[in-house]
Design goal:
Blueprint: H1 3-33, H2 45-48, H3 50-60, H4 81-84, H5 86-101, H6 107-119, H7 124-141, H8 146-161, E1 175-181, H9 188-201, E2 206-211, H10 216-229, E3 232-234, H11 242-256, E4 260-265, H12 273-286, E5 291-301, H13 306-318, E6 323-327, H14 337-345, E7 349-353, E8 361-363, H15 366-373
Parallel strand pairs: 1-4, 1-5, 2-3, 2-4, 5-6, 6-7
Antiparallel strand pairs: 7-8
Helix pairs in contact: 5-6, 6-7, 7-8, 8-15, 9-10, 11-12, 13-14
The structure holds guanosine-5'-triphosphate and magnesium ion (MG).
The site of guanosine-5'-triphosphate has 22 residues, from helix 9.
């Protein structure tokens, strides 16, 4: 036999023996490579990583590849209104689980609802009033589940909040003046700063008038906001007459052809009659030609709860308040004060402050507000 033939024969025999030894082992391990038959469907790592799954689906559908967006044009992900009113949400939603856990609407359900609303700062009067209306509706419509009852309460709240015109008024071609009033530290100056930016973004030319002349720092603070918003600042010396500074601002705005004067005022203690007198004077002077006052906005700190209502009563006696700016709803505020203000004073909340930065001012949306208030924590 040829030596090459012998080598070939040996190699062949060896290969055959190896295959015979290994094949049964591989067959024996086969079932282990399959997923266990008892593995629960929908659980486990494969379903946790949803984005990957969706990416794969996109690829299979043959969608064109999306070019990655350059980081500089990515808008910052803003938390939703619902996320930002943490405390307000927590107060009402803390009761929801208990209310919903009952099989029917009973006396305790009504008690808990009442307690939830009062604790959320809606106030005793408006709460009683609102629940009376809901009770009538529940009877008339045969509402019998706690879930349907909560929907009825939400609808009633929305209905009560929907009566108001919440727009900020400005007349084209006029030197519009928006006055900001409110006690110390509620957020008047900050709100003016935030609002100036929003107004500039819609193309309005804004002048800020530093009517808080009690502290030099007040005009400095307003100046910083004016720079950020590209607004013109008109200020006077510390201790100067607030009315004349605001009037200077209006005159300047008229000369420039500016659309809007945002006028700051000093934080006032509402129990000081002289300070209220000064506010009346500011309002009177701001309305003189060429001034055209279209909004007098009362700024209230939502965290002060029902005390805000007391402040509102005093201010509305001094000047005709056209709307409320409710600040610090991002903090420990409970939110229900919105309904109390509307119910007791008939003044619409027009703007809501949700933080200290320039982007933290939004228009008040009753539906969004009520839904957020009742959403789970
Ligand atoms: N968290 C939070 N803080 C706010 C909001 N609005 C204002 N602030 C803060 O509240 C503080 C007082 O705000 P100001 O704008 O100075 O209040 P003011 O009403 O002008 O106060 P006076 O000039 O003293 O009358 C500042 O520290 C602001 O940053 C808001 O919506 N949320
Ligand atoms: Mg101020």
């Amino acid at each position: 036999m040829e030596p090459a033939l012998i080598i070939l024969l040996v190699v062949g025999v060896l290969a055959g023996v190896t295959l015979a030894l290994v094949a049964p082992r591989l067959r024996g391990r086969g079932p282990e490579l399959e997923p266990p038959a008892t593995r629960p469907v929908g659980r486990g790592p494969a379903t946790v990583d949803r984005p990957d799954v969706e990416d794969e689906v996109d690829v299979e559908l043959g969608e064109p590849p999306v070019a990655p967006t350059p980081p500089e044009v990515l808008a910052p992900l803003k938390p939703s209104f619902r996320e930002r009113i943490g405390k307000a949400r927590g107060t009402v939603s803390g009761y929801l689980g208990s209310i919903l856990s009952r099989s029917a609407i009973d006396a305790e359900t009504w008690d808990e609802l009442e307690e939830a609303l009062i604790r959320a700062d809606v106030g005793v009067g408006p709460t009683t009033d609102m629940l009376d209306a809901v009770r009538t509706q529940v009877k008339a419509e045969g509402v019998d589940t706690p879930a349907a009852l909560l929907e009825a309460v939400k609808d009633e709240m929305k209905r009560r909040l929907h009566v108001a015109d919440r727009s900020l008024h400005a007349d084209e071609g006029k030197t519009n003046v928006w006055l900001f009033v409110g006690v110390n530290g509620v957020g008047k100056t900050t709100t003016i700063g935030k609002l100036a930016k929003l107004e500039a973004e819609v193309g309005r030319t804004v002048v800020m008038a530093a009517g808080d002349t009690f502290r030099a720092a007040a005009a400095e603070q307003l100046g910083t906001w004016a720079e950020r918003a590209g607004a013109t600042l008109v200020r006077g010396a510390e201790g100067a007459d607030p009315s004349s500074i605001i009037f200077d601002g209006i005159t300047k705005a008229a000369a420039m052809g500016a659309d809007l004067v945002l006028a700051d005022t000093a934080g006032r203690l509402h129990n000081k009659t002289n300070l209220m007198d000064e506010l009346r004077k500011v309002r009177r002077v701001a309305g003189k030609e060429p001034g055209h006052v279209t909004e007098t906005l009362l700024v209230l700190d939502a965290t002060t709860g029902q005390n805000g209502l007391a402040q509102a009563r005093v201010f509305t006696e001094a000047v005709e308040v056209t709307g409320v700016v409710l600040t610090k709803l991002d903090g420990s505020a409970k939110g229900g004060i919105v309904l109390a203000i509307q119910a007791e004073l008939g003044i619409p909340v027009k703007l809501v402050g949700l933080g200290e930065t320039v982007d933290d001012l939004i228009a008040f949306d009753p539906d969004e507000f009520v839904d957020a208030l009742f959403s789970a924590p």
